[in-house]
Amino acid sequence: MCGLFGMVRSPFAADPGRASDVFVMLGALAEERGTGSAGLALLGAQPGLGGAGGAGCRVVSGRGGFSGVWRPELLSELDRAAVAIGHTRRAAPGSPAEIIGVAQALAGRGALAWVERDRPTEVHLARGALSPLTMAVDTDQNIYWASEPRWFREVERHTRVRFATVVLLREGAYLKVGMERRPGRRDLPEVLATAFAPAARETGTGPRAAAGFTPAGAEGDRAGLLRRVVERAGGTGGLLTVA
Asked: Side by side, which strands form the sheet with 37-44?
């Protein structure tokens, strides 16, 4: 189990600090889903992150929760980053070229967020079985993701940011979120979506998957489940479809 969070910054946002505030607060809230380890990556075409052509990447990780990894001196780099990705507990790697096949073959909890180094302003998101994943867009057109939709309501209570849309993704959702930068243009982030069939292990469908959810939020998520359950050897056999 892990807590995912991050953002794709809008080039039209007047104040970069607003989106940065959201990212840091989502990191603190993500500790609800574990404090075994945490990390963040700052990427993109904003000056100051290093690398040629805006391909710089700063990765910070360590044991403990996000509050132990985050340092205030990273704030100026976060304000310049086009994309910021974070996790608590642990993160699972993925292969962008084969992600749909990999995600569909994966049996167990899974929510993935990753970028390709040569295209640092594009983020790939996939919600497999059990592990929740939510997307949101604020009024400055910054795009965010996080494990729990309630976290965005908490952000609104404690920051100046207001969200125009908050959506809990259904199991089996895959999205590519990002910007295609062209010379002389500032492009809005785009979202491309498709779907796959997620699978869960029989032993992994307990209440821990809903850590951080309110009872109403957990019930709402269960209403849209699409996973199939893979039973253990010696079980009652077959695949169970949960609709």
From this structure: 56-63, 37-44, 83-88, 3-8, 143-146, 134-138, 163-168
Contact assessment for residue 155 and residue 22, using Cβ atoms and an 8 Å cutoff: yes
Q: What is the pLDDT of residue 77?
A: 92
Residue 59 has pLDDT above 70, yes or no: yes
Highest mean pLDDT among 23-37, 174-188, 220-234: 23-37
Q: What is the pLDDT of residues 81-100, one digit of tens each?
A: 999 999 987 554 444 445 55
